[in-house]
Specification:
Two copies of one chain form a homodimer. Chain A is α/β, with parallel strands linked by helices. Helices cover about 40% and strands about 20% of the residues of chain A. Chain A contains 16 helices and 17 strands.
Chain lengths: ~400, ~400
């Protein structure tokens, strides 16, 4: 039997809650949790080279997106380069998501929508890892960006409109080629507006894809030695579905779990709680796509170990930075004209490189001048802010 | 008498030529020459923080542009921040140009052109440091971007079309506010298409502005202690004018000299030679805006000490990098589809950080994905390439 490449140990629990501090062991090093996972969508954390992460941010792990890397440069290119770590010159633990979220959300984002088939309605002649002829025909006829069937999803590229197909097996194969330490089973990420019947149907399909993802992973002996596989809990806003999903996936042979789907602020806590009460304690839990400071606080208390979110770098590129307040956090936009002559630190309470060496006025100048360094420095601050905010939550658990 | 803040010593001469290795001493440290001066137009070397310069490029000096900083964020903002070094978090020797080149070239670049007055034709009632009413009226009537008179230049901002005026005194005052180690006397940079009569007229005016720049500098005791002033040799393609200009400026109390104007490849060598035969040997000479490898070789042989050029970062942003060839240098564009699967180093012969850690395929991916890191890594390589190419020329002189 192969020693699992990704394992988890709980170091300390927060008494009376689901929260814990732990360590995820991966082939590229340990991740001390709770931890914020920096997002490098296309194999680059926007504007940062790896030394910037190590010296100025201090993140322990980075996440790249399967969908984006599949389309550009192509998983085959990354494989030929020797995998994501070599290709991107990254030497830290890495995660790739399944591609599911982008397939569905970019479809929705482009205002076209998703065509769904109920179980049994699909074309039985579907072939693995090939374009599903029926889906393709539908997509062409209807101009849909994303067509789902039992087997997988046919979608058009947001870059050039070319047609592609992901199945559970194909997603795992692509993630094997990319070679991150932690890979994620292919899942369907539903719209929050979908009705409960569809949420359940999609969840059941995600569970069947989860099983097939495990099988596909176990068939690749080389990958099995160096990549851990997470399953993704779905179920939308419905706590009973969330519980069903957690129970179903907990019984499968995953190295960890993602909690996926879109949440409203009110639903988030309860949904996490019922899921983490069920998921096995000795496996790490990643809250997918959530990363606002107060959400992380709640996620940690409710037993999540890792978090990822594009917000820190995305808002940085528009001149927006995090700033501490007496009772929490706020965002300020440096393009506001009042900062043109503000020679105070970007965030007075922050000890990051940017706040120690630059003023709001300089950052404002960079943004007004459309200088790339503005986005870079704001990204360094925002990432440091959220990464170290999460580190402090760990320290608090250890000291409690 | 104040000890000059910027001094020069010749360390070794290339026998039989005008070339030499030397050291420029400045308040922010020494510049070992020949040296390439990295350009940070708006108080930022595009995409690089100072640590990137120090760790990955190794440049000893950076140049910012008076015209750009005057328009955004404003010299007053930089002064209030404590000067350019504090504002930009730069701790190395710095230069600001006079603003003359941008005033004239941005005017020309915008396809409008420059209105010239012959000596004596100007409005005698001109007031220093104020918009010249006559010029302003003309500019408004004719929509010119740049109107020259004896006193100075009235021009419209390339950002918002607002009207401004530089005189010799105003340029020096702005450069005092910015606070670079080396500042440059206000000069008129003529179009290469101007006839000889106009070249001479403009040169004479530049000489009068040079005198007034020195006077303006000497009136600021604080600045005089910490900023050195260079005069700019003009004269276009005409060797006799170049000689006149060099002789005239050599007699003035400058700490060093710039050689300005636009050159054609064929004219460059001769123009430099006749100038440097005249300029005093104990003062540093900066060849303004020239920085292609083979031009630097020629400039060094003919007695220039420092060089600046925006090309390394400008071409980097479009995916173009320098590469050594058996007999020289070439540029390659990483957007070319043949590099998508090229896992060789960006430049096989280069020992920079980028060439040691990344492949052409990764850089190509970054450029195809419009990722900022592409421009950053290409800039690091190009700047390292040209900075260290120039350093090797120094080493060769010292070893000869």
């Amino acid at each position: 039997m192969i020693k699992p490449p990704v394992t988890f140990e709980v170091v300390k629990r927060i008494s009376g809650t689901l929260g814990r501090a732990g360590i995820i062991h991966t082939p590229h090093g340990d991740i001390e949790t709770p931890a914020f996972v920096v997002v490098g969508t296309k194999g680059t954390v926007k504007s940062l080279k790896p030394e910037d992460m190590a010296e100025y941010v201090g993140n322990q792990v980075a996440l790249a997106n399967t969908y984006h890397l599949f389309l550009q440069p192509g998983a085959d290119v990354i494989k030929e380069a020797g995998g994501l770590h070599k290709f991107s010159n990254w030497d830290l633990p890495t995660i790739t998501d399944s591609g599911g979220f982008q397939v569905f959300s970019l479809g929705a984002a482009f205002g076209k929508g998703v065509t769904k088939f109920a179980k049994g309605e699909t074309d039985d002649k579907t072939e693995k890892s090939e374009l599903n002829v029926y889906s393709k025909k539908l997509a062409e006829e209807h101009g849909k960006l994303c067509v789902i069937d039992e087997e997988g999803v046919t979608f058009t590229s947001h870059i050039d409109g070319s047609m592609h197909r992901f199945t559970a097996e194909r997603s795992i194969e692509i993630q094997h080629d990319i070679g991150a330490d932690i890979i994620i089973a292919f899942d369907e990420c539903t719209s929050p507006t979908a009705d409960k019947a569809y949420q359940e149907e999609a969840m059941d399909r995600t569970h069947r894809w989860a099983k097939r993802s495990i099988l596909a992973h176990k068939q690749n002996f080389e990958a099995l030695k160096k990549q851990g596989l997470y399953g993704v809990v779905q179920g939308g806003r419905h706590l009973d579905l969330r519980q069903t999903s957690a129970r179903t996936l907990a019984d499968m042979d995953f190295d960890g779990f993602g909690i996926g789907g879109s949440f409203s602020k009110e639903d988030l806590g309860e949904a996490i709680q019922v899921v983490n009460e069920i998921l096995p304690e000795d496996k790490p839990r990643h809250l997918l796509g959530i990363g606002e400071p107060m959400d992380i606080v709640e996620g940690v208390r409710l037993g999540c170990d890792t978090f990822d979110c594009v917000a820190p770098t995305r808002i940085a590129r528009t001149g927006t930075i995090y700033e501490r307040t007496n009772d929490g956090h706020k965002r300020i936009n440096l393009m506001n004209s009042k900062y043109r002559r503000d020679f105070s630190k970007p965030d007075e309470s922050c000890d990051c490189y940017v706040c120690q060496n630059y003023t709001k006025a300089y950052l404002a100048h960079l943004f007004h001048s459309r200088e790339m360094l503005g986005a870079h420095l704001a990204s360094l601050h925002n990432l440091y802010y959220i990464v170290n905010f999460t580190k402090r939550l760990r320290e608090e658990i250890l000291l409690a």
